[in-house]
Design a protein that fits this description.
The complex is a heterotrimer of chains A (about 100), B (about 500) and C (about 525). Chain A is an alpha+beta fold and about 100 residues long. Chain A has helices at about 5-15, 20-40, 40-45, 75, and strands spanning about 65, 85, 90. Chain A starts with 5 loop residues before the first helix and ends in a 6-residue tail after the last strand. By secondary structure, chain C is α/β, with parallel strands linked by helices. In chain C, strand 11 (about 450-460) and strand 12 form a beta hairpin. The chains are: A alpha+beta (about 100), B alpha+beta (about 500), C alpha/beta (about 525). Strand 3 of chain A pairs antiparallel with strand 10 (about 160-165) of chain B, so a sheet runs across the interface.
Chain lengths: ~100, ~500, ~525
């Protein structure tokens, strides 16, 4: 498995929306390389015949009936908002359109 | 905004073969959201149809809406899909302020429905089979309003406002396999396909299917390849093409644009395109990038959905007749011509006519009323004909009054206006407005005598066998009775009086 | 008529307090006030609490006292633990108090809803003393990663109280609360329990609702009790447990046999399995000694000690450090400065939402949180998923199979809870890997979803610090932990001549204020 380098960390930080200084990128790359190295044995531990377990206790079909429950008022909804206007959450301009 | 060069559609078709693909998002009309018990309602005050789950507050967990799962299975069945014995939800990770958790709970490698098809009938009756890759469950995002820029556009906006009322509304995303072989009919097929999806989900009762409200939204993929080439070209994905007409136009435009790019020797860029209804063009959105690394993984807060065969069959048994089959059946039952039936369908009054026939009207009378009287009024009022406020019972009653000779067609039209104005039932309005056809022959005969006396030459012509001249006398009588007479009865009486066979 | 000093009151177990409250020997206001006084006296040194909820706690206490004083049906219907105060890890959301998760990014945030476990505490009328310190978003094994300063170990204020739930464990060890709630993703209840000489239980995954516990790693997280006795943990788990329709992973099984199991503990004829891979090399000598001592006591009490092997546990730590950060990277994406919490504007450049999110997360998250988010983003990214996340999920299957095989040979399994006693503050802060190794014995239970209990096993010879003994049971068999735990606890306390915590430093000179008790008074 490829070692993790500074450019990788910069890419991952972009994906994760965390601003990082050059110094942080360097430090993080070093630390992550050690951690990634220590966990690499995992990829060889199990063969193709071993199924993956994503839930420790298997359950299925846990549903909710389609019945309306509680709602917030706009005031409650916005109570923790860093910024709001016109009963809506206010955010700076979105450049990356989609 | 750059303007792209385009080729004429005909030239594009001469050189290239289009391959289409669609991702249609259908908003389900469940009472509550996909993963929370907040109401799924359109148009309420901002941020009031939300609770902690929809806002993605710290500590919240999702719980799947059973009705949404059942609706999704029904859609899968109606699209002739296989229903997965077991499927899971997955998280699609990306940051965007309309996405409260910064991931969308969706399905990835295990959609609830897969491998289906839909037979699409084009206007001339050609049937084209579109293969369905999958239909999967997911949640909608909130609504962003861009402020301060030009006309609510994102470009140049100062800031944006977010309303999470729509966040968490259940969606089913229907994805086609690549659609090949449509040729020059590709734009028409695109429109017909989306129309068919809309009709199916509406018929199933699982979605309000109102495109203007975003209940059905279409992303259209287009690529071109030279005739005879097996390999697909590079595609563009035009997002949020949200009317049937726009789907047709957008596909046509993209075919023309791709053709021009390929003609110039350039490669098509794999990118998102935005549709602009005003200019009927697309503009470049975002190129495919590493930001599209969505890091899907199984949603650990939800457990698998296991659709037992019994459950699936129970749901299958509740499915209504498919729209295409229903149309075929109704057309035959009503005895309409192809043209008549197509007009009825296009005017959106097929359901209303069916109800009117069920209420006791003949198929031809029902058509006459809906197409002749109601569609025009609905257009003026800018509503769907069915929502104008005329019930099938009203039409049966009105038609009965005319057939019984109590009122004539002209009066019936006035009575309909009265019904729409809320003045009461047709009988009440006839009464109130004093519209009844003069049925006592006495006053009529007087008026006929007067009309004959006033035009002796015409009377002579009729006596001589020129029955078509009778119109002038009838007109005189109608004038004298201010239109209250039954013209048919007047005619009969004139002929009787003059001793002429009608 | 008896009189208790407040210093005596705070040393009582929850079960004993509950009995005295029911008997009318003491009021809930007195009990609650005694703990609030203790917090005021020692928390400056311990820093177990991030927020003290005195007013509301006393109001609930007064309400319980009033109901009890009025008598009748309402008094009869009071929950067994009504009026017994409790501390809550600050990862669990509460109306009326801030919830920070130990992070700057949530500083000052108030939840508009209660976690399910909080609703249950309120229904039982247990006064909530306040919110306890933790490693930021529960990521750490020392509570040093809290944005609000480390919690200190009451046994030695220069040492760590374990983590992430160091605040809850230290509060209970320092007699600031008789009970506390913790959360355990890889050992965050049990390892602090071990190093502070307290009892901590990670229930079966799904036995306690996670609704309102700020998610770290959804498939591993579990809320559980922290206490000074095995019986107290059983009492508390019965309060907070049970099916919750707001948590899709919540079990419908009934877990109402825990208190009975703790009260009727018996190991006669039981098979107790030593996990070969979870002791010996890498474990401190004093830890091993206490562990062996416990085995001897259990044997004397009639248990059969067998050795089992779980060979795939060698992959558990690695697999954990792929699954956990992967889920973390997604669960923590919501902290973006849009809907709640901190918003930080970029110092320079264009003011776009993307840059505001990135600046907010850069300023709001500490290093360990960032490290795990980046690691998880990596493990899930295109091209790596199968090798990392996918393989780790397969290892989970192997670990479950190992446990299945082990439980075919033994009724419960036993190991030291942590490889060492409490280390010094700062000792492992710059070495993430060394820090991660603290959880080597606790992580397997989270990976397999099985329940685990840590109880005090004595003091290590070389440093005089507490050692934890861990018991593991099959999924849904939480009662077995309490049955065996209560027996071992009784045997050890008999040997020590009282609770282990009686040997802990007092932190302050006892204040001998007499508390008038009301029991039997006319």
């Amino acid at each position: 498995m490829a070692a993790i380098n500074r450019d990788d960390v910069a890419h991952l930080a972009r994906l994760a929306h965390i601003e990082m200084s050059a110094e942080e990128l360097d430090r993080m790359a070093g630390e992550l390389a050690v951690i990634v190295d220590s966990v690499k044995s995992v990829s060889e531990a199990a063969g193709d015949d071993v199924p993956a377990t994503s839930h420790p206790i298997p359950l299925s079909n846990v549903f909710r009936e389609d019945v309306v429950g509680h709602t917030f008022t706009a005031e409650q909804a916005l109570s923790g908002a860093p910024d709001a206007a016109e009963d809506r959450f206010k955010v700076p301009a979105i450049l990356d359109e989609d | 905004m750059s303007t792209d060069t385009i080729l004429s559609f005909e030239e594009a078709m001469e050189k290239y073969d289009p391959v289409l693909g669609f991702e249609v998002h259908v908003e389900l009309n469940t009472k509550t959201k996909m993963f929370s018990s907040a109401p799924n309602v359109f148009g309420d005050e901002p941020n009031t149809n939300v609770n902690e789950v929809d806002l993605g507050l710290p500590g919240v967990l999702p719980v799947v809406n059973k009705a949404a799962v059942e609706s999704s299975i029904k859609i899968g069945l109606a699209l002739n899909c296989k229903i997965a014995e077991s499927c899971r939800f997955a998280r699609k990770n990306y940051f965007y302020p309309d996405t409260p958790k910064n991931f969308q709970t969706s399905q990835y490698d295990e959609p609830i429905a897969y491998d289906g098809y839909l037979d699409i009938e084009l206007e001339d009756g050609t049937v084209f089979r579109v293969e369905i890759e999958r239909a999967h469950m997911e949640e909608d995002a909130g609504k962003l309003t861009h402020m301060g820029g030009a006309a609510g556009r994102i470009q140049g906006a100062d800031y944006s406002l977010v309303d999470y009322n729509r966040a968490g509304v259940p969606l089913v995303e229907i994805v086609t396999k690549p659609i090949q072989g449509a040729g020059s009919r590709a734009p028409e097929l695109a429109k017909a396909y989306v129309s068919a999806i809309r009709e199916i989900v509406k018929n199933l009762g699982v979605s309000d299917a109102r495109m203007e409200r975003g209940n059905v939204r279409c992303d259209a993929n287009v690529s071109l390849r030279p005739h005879g080439q097996e390999r697909f070209g590079i595609r563009s994905e035009t997002k949020n093409v949200n009317s049937l007409r726009a789907v047709e136009h957008a596909v046509r435009y993209e075919i023309q644009r791709h053709a021009a790019v390929l003609d110039s020797g350039q490669p098509v860029i794999q990118e998102t395109r935005h549709w602009h209804e005003d200019t009927r063009t697309t503009t470049s959105g975002r190129a495919k990038s590493d930001a599209d690394d969505y890091r899907y993984f199984p949603e650990p807060d939800l457990v698998p959905v296991v659709a037992s065969r019994e459950w699936v069959e129970e749901l299958r048994a509740t499915l209504p007749e498919p729209p295409a089959e229903r149309r075929k059946r109704l057309k035959e039952a009503w005895g309409y011509s192809d043209l008549e039936f197509r007009d009825v369908v296009n005017a959106g009054v097929m359901d209303s006519i069916e109800e009117t026939v069920a209420a006791g009207a003949s198929a031809s009378a029902a058509r006459k009323w809906w197409m002749g009287e109601i569609v025009g009024r609905a257009k003026t009022a800018d509503v769907d004909p069915a929502e104008l406020g005329v019930s099938p019972q009203t039409i049966v009653e009105l038609n009965g009054l005319v057939e019984e000779g109590k009122i004539n067609n002209k009066m019936a039209s006035q009575v309909l206006d009265g019904v729409l104005a809320g003045e009461g039932t047709p009988a009440e309005i006839v009464e109130k407005r004093g519209l009844a056809v003069v049925s006592d022959d006495g006053p009529l005969l007087e008026a006929i005598d007067a009309a004959l006396a006033a035009q002796p030459d015409v009377a002579e012509k009729i006596r001589g066998g020129k029955v078509q001249a009778i119109g002038a006398i009838v007109g005189g009588v109608m004038k004298a009775t201010r239109g209250q007479a039954d013209a048919g009865r007047v005619r009969e009486l004139i002929l009787e009086k003059l001793g002429v066979e009608g | 008529m008896s009189e208790l000093t407040s210093n005596e009151l705070i040393r009582l177990s929850a079960a004993a307090l509950a009995a005295k409250l029911r008997a009318g020997e003491v009021t809930s206001v007195e009990v609650t006030q005694a703990h609030l006084d203790r917090i005021a006296a020692v928390d400056g040194q311990v820093n177990a609490f991030l927020h003290v909820n005195a007013e509301e706690a006393l109001a609930v206490a007064a309400e319980v006292d009033a109901i009890r004083a009025a008598g009748g049906a309402a008094a009869e219907e009071l929950h067994e633990l009504a009026g017994v105060p409790i501390a809550v890890k600050d990862l669990i959301v509460t109306i009326g108090q801030p919830t920070t998760a130990g992070s700057k990014i949530l500083e000052g945030w108030h939840s508009p809803y209660d976690a399910t476990v909080i609703k249950k505490l309120r229904a039982a009328k247990m006064p909530i003393l306040g919110k306890t310190n933790l490693d930021e978003f529960a990521m750490g094994s020392s509570t040093e990663h809290s944005a609000y300063g480390p919690t200190r170990n009451p046994w030695d204020l220069e040492r760590i109280p374990g983590g992430s739930g160091g605040g809850s464990a230290a509060a209970v060890a320092a007699f600031e609360a008789p009970l506390a709630l913790g959360t355990d993703t890889g050992g965050s209840i049990r390892q602090p329990g071990a190093v502070t000489g307290t009892v901590g239980v990670k229930p079966t995954y799904g036995a306690v609702s996670r609704y309102g516990a700020i998610a770290m790693a959804s498939s591993l997280d579990q809320i559980g009790p922290v206490s000074r006795t095995v019986l107290d943990s059983a009492l508390l788990q019965e309060v907070i447990g049970g099916h919750d329709p707001f948590d899709s992973t919540s079990l419908t099984d009934s877990f109402d046999n825990l208190v009975e199991a703790a009260r009727t503990g018996n190991v006669q004829g039981m098979k107790i399995g030593i996990i070969k891979e979870l002791h010996g090399e890498g474990y401190q000598a004093g830890v091993e000694n206490r562990f062996n001592e416990s085995l001897e006591l259990l044997k004397e009490a009639g248990a059969e000690i067998v050795e089992v092997s779980c060979p795939n546990l060698k992959y558990a730590l690695g697999a954990y450090y792929l699954i956990m950060p992967s889920e973390v990277s997604s669960n923590l994406a919501k902290f973006d400065g849009v809907r709640f919490g901190l918003r930080v504007l970029p110092k320079e450049g264009p003011m776009t939402i993307e840059r505001v999110m990135a600046a907010t997360r850069a300023a709001g998250f500490g290093d360990e949180v960032k490290r795990r988010i980046i690691l998880g983003t990596y493990a899930l990214s295109a091209g790596y998923y199968d090798a990392y996340y996918g393989s780790a999920q397969k290892v989970r299957t192997l670990i479950q199979r190992d446990f299945d095989a082990a439980f075919a040979q033994a009724d419960v399994l036993i190991s030291p809870t942590a490889p060492t006693t409490a280390f010094k503050l700062g000792e492992k802060l710059d070495d993430p890997l060394a820090m991660y190794l603290n959880d080597v014995a606790t992580i397997p239970a989270n990976m397999a979803g099985i329940p685990g209990l840590s109880l005090p096993g004595g003091l290590a010879d070389e440093d005089g610090l507490p050692v934890g003994i861990q018991l593991l049971a099959p999924a849904r068999e939480d009662a077995r932990l309490y049955r065996v735990g209560a027996v071992l606890e009784a045997l050890l306390e008999e040997k020590w001549g009282g609770p282990l915590l009686a040997q802990a430093p007092s932190l302050v000179e006892p204040v001998e204020t007499l508390v008038e008790t009301h029991g039997g008074s006319k």
